[in-house]
Amino acid sequence: MYRSIFLKLFNRKFSKKEKVQKFGDLKNEVFLFSWISEYFQKAHRSDSSHVITDKVCNDLDFDELFMYLDRTKSKVGQQSLYSRLRLIDVVNQIDAEDENLIKRISADENLRASLEKQLSRLNSTEAFYISKLFQDKIIKAPSWYQFLPFLSIFSFLSIISLLFSNVMVYLIPILVIVNMGIHYRNKNNQQHYISSLPELLKLHSVVKNLHAADHTIFNEIEVEQSISTLGKLKKHFALFQMENKLQGDASNLVWGSVEIIKILLLLEPILFFRALKKIDSNQDHIIHLFNALGRVDMLYSIASLRSGADKFCIPNFTEAKTGLQATGIYHPLIENCVENDIDTHGKSVLLTGSNMSGKTTFIRSIGINLITSISLNTSFASKFSLPKMRLSSAIRISDDLMNDKSYYFEEVSTIKEIINCSERDNSYLFLLDEIFKGTNTIERISAGKAVLSYLARNNNVVFVSTHDIELTDLLKDEYNLYHFSEVINGDYVDFDYKLKSGKLKTRNAIRILEINQYPNPIIDEAKTTAIHLEMEQK
């Protein structure tokens, strides 16, 4: 089971050798998460959206999950997909029109080829900058900007006058120095946009070409108007498109000649702030094109993901009180992952089992499938029915040494956040692994029982793993009991990773110590102590 693709995904973070990505394949490229996540970090949070927190992301290995899910062809689509997975909108979901386009992409090779060709034009790192044009505050023109057109005209006339007279010959050097100062001072402002403006033109071109080829690809009515409006602005960005190309040109002579002309006539600062003014007044149209292309690339990614998945299904969304029902559910990041079935019957789930038996992996698979089901309308199972719930977790907890917090205090703080979530109007899925393991047995069991009973109210569903068998008796009326177990064959421990009903009835920890050849005195004393403790409990 643990022959996973985690290592492959990790290596792809740093791989420099790329190959052509075929439909359904995993990507083989460097994932720049600081850039990929920036659009999400600045995105508007609507009342209907739920943020997958950094804590949940860490618990569910979200970066590795994203590298598996992401089959987009453009950086715009990549940012949109990341944002959709972390900013779950329980209202704006994959609808019937989206599913129809996913099916068309899956079935029509010509459509796929057209999408791949156009979307790939926005796959350079510079395309990450497009979102800055509507998420960041646009730089305003300084007070002295209004004098630049007059200074530009005066500089031009002064140069022309040299053809007829030498009167201005002494003034020209002063004008050149002044203009050069203005020109290079403006370079600092321009650096923020030198990449985004050419990529905006490319975004417009890609959306325009796709829309012209097939009017049904974009279902947003604003797209056609935005294509037309931004098309009229292209002339304002032409200089910066040329600047971007010249920077990559091998001919320094061409670049130098153009630079001299721009300095003498102050073309850059004049056209730059004029272009920014146009962007500021047309941000809604830029957003429309960005969202439209991001949506199409995301649907392409979903189609490719489904093509490459071992198994998937379209989820069935139900009422919160019905709980979760899954057939053949599995963890998508684990090769040959054992599939499991579960029906919560509207109740929460308490899992028991030894270490490495599959408890935490199963809990993570439930959380991951909740995210992909609601965000991508795709579940890694044969059948999956679930309510549209929000998600919170406490799986990975560690000492916060920087803030002088012990493990237990860090755990208490995390569980308190989950309790706060449980008191809200929205239904939650809570994932917990070994609650309160940072304290002594009696208080751990007592506090754990109280918290787990509290969390299971208000149509919330809890999936919790524990080694404390005592909790199964205390919570048997409120929780469904399941367990994972292993089989010891001679000197080998075999795990089947199959979910079983009821509580764990066998204990093999000391036997596993024997298999690993612990000294006999340790084994004998452990057995004696275990018998003594069990008799005390009776």
From TrEMBL:
GO cellular component: cytosol
A Pfam cross-reference name: MutS_V
Membrane-traversing stretches: 147-178, 253-273
Annotated ranges, domain DNA mismatch repair proteins mutS family: 346-531
Keywords: ATP-binding, DNA-binding, Membrane, Nucleotide-binding, Transmembrane, Transmembrane helix
InterPro entries in UniProt: DNA_mismatch_repair_MutS_C, MutS, P-loop_NTPase
UniProt entry tagged with the keyword rRNA processing: no
GO MF annotation list: ATP binding; ATP-dependent DNA damage sensor activity; mismatched DNA binding
Protein known as: MutS domain V
Single GO biological process annotation from the record: mismatch repair
Source organism (scientific name): Marivirga sericea
